[in-house]
Amino acid sequence: MENQTFSADIISIEGLKVIPQSSTPAFILLLLIYIFIMASNIGLVVLIAMETSLHQPMYLLFCNMNINDVFGATVVIPRLLSDLFTPVTQRYTHYIECVVQAFCAHFHAGTSHTVLMIMAFDRYTAICNPLRYAAIMTHRMVVKLSVGAWVAAFISVAILLGLTIRLTRCRRVIFNPFCDNASLFKLSCQNLLINHIYGLGSAVVILGSSLCSIAFTYLRIAIMCFSSKNKALNSKALQTCATHLAVYIIMMVASFTPMIMHRRPEWADSGKVASVMFHVVPPALNPIIYGLQCKELKHKILCTKQNTPSSYLSF
User: Is residue 310 over pLDDT 90?
Assistant: First the structure.
């Protein structure tokens, strides 16, 4: 009985199919990307925390994205690195570990949307209601928005995974590169109607909310810019919004690409790679986009680089 229980709790993960000759290059590339994600995102958080001039709502809200990107990459990449040198037939994980990874992966995805929504609200307030911006976007409001973004995603994903772990399992193989909710409930032979309804409903709510909020805020910002005759203000507003919009588009492309590919059996392996890209591409590009486009951040980064050699020489 104990052996049967143990075997039922062990899940086989097929993951990415990499030929032995490509394992080492793939490992080095993925490891370098992971190191860059960690260094760039954590570096920006530390920079914003240390520089009092950057203690503005826009940058404080941006820290949520950096932290979430570090979290999302850490959920997936380390396990992928270990699996690259493990034969497909020997890739196993415990069911509880799989549930935790699935929860964290969906939590990262949900938070990615909610964080960009509160960042859009910040930009809308700054551009469309500049005289009341300081009164609205107080430190207390920043904390409320940040906590709300994380809590909303947490509750949604907790219900999603709660509906899945109640199911009994009759299968033991996951074909995705990492555990997610769909892979987990496919292990069951029970009726999955409730899981499909809630999963689809929550996805529609999150995606619909983010799309509608982004579309509304940018439409209002565009109207404001067209009606304003202040070219300098319009240029700064468009630059800031272009940065935010680029990050949002990258995230949406990374989200929908695996969904499309998984619907075609002949694209199954490419769909696995695409699902990993959501945890790799946005976390790697977000700090680059914001670091290069935001003048204040760019200036502080350059100043830090210029002061580093002199600080070493002083020792």
Answer: no
Question: Which residues are paired to 218 by β-bridges?
Answer: none
User: Cα(149)–Cα(114) distance, rounded to whole angstroms?
Assistant: 5
Q: Which residues pair with 93 in a beta bridge?
A: 11
The bridge status of strand 10-13 relative to strand 173-174 is: parallel
Q: Alpha-carbon distance 161 to 182, whole Å?
A: 10
Edge-to-edge strand ranges of the sheet holding 92-94: 92-94, 10-13, 173-174
Task: Give which of 165, 161, 33 is closest to 105, Cα–Cα.
Answer: 161
Domain boundaries, the chain: 9-294
Contact 131, 139 (CB under 8 A): no
Q: What is the CATH topology of the domain spanning 9-294?
A: Rhopdopsin 7-helix transmembrane proteins (1.20.1070)
**Which tokens go with 176?**
């995705």
Query: How far apart, in Å, are the Cα atoms of 244 and each of 24, 58, 112, 158?
Result: 35, 11, 12, 28
CA pair distance 78, 70, nearest whole angstrom: 12
With tokens 């570990």, the residue in question is 97
Measuring CA to CA, which residue among 69, 113, 30 is closest to residue 288?
69
Phi, psi of 11 (to 5 degrees): -110, 135
pTM of the prediction?
Answer: 0.86
pLDDT single digits (tens) 57-108: 888 998 999 999 999 999 999 999 988 888 877 888 899 999 999 999 999 9
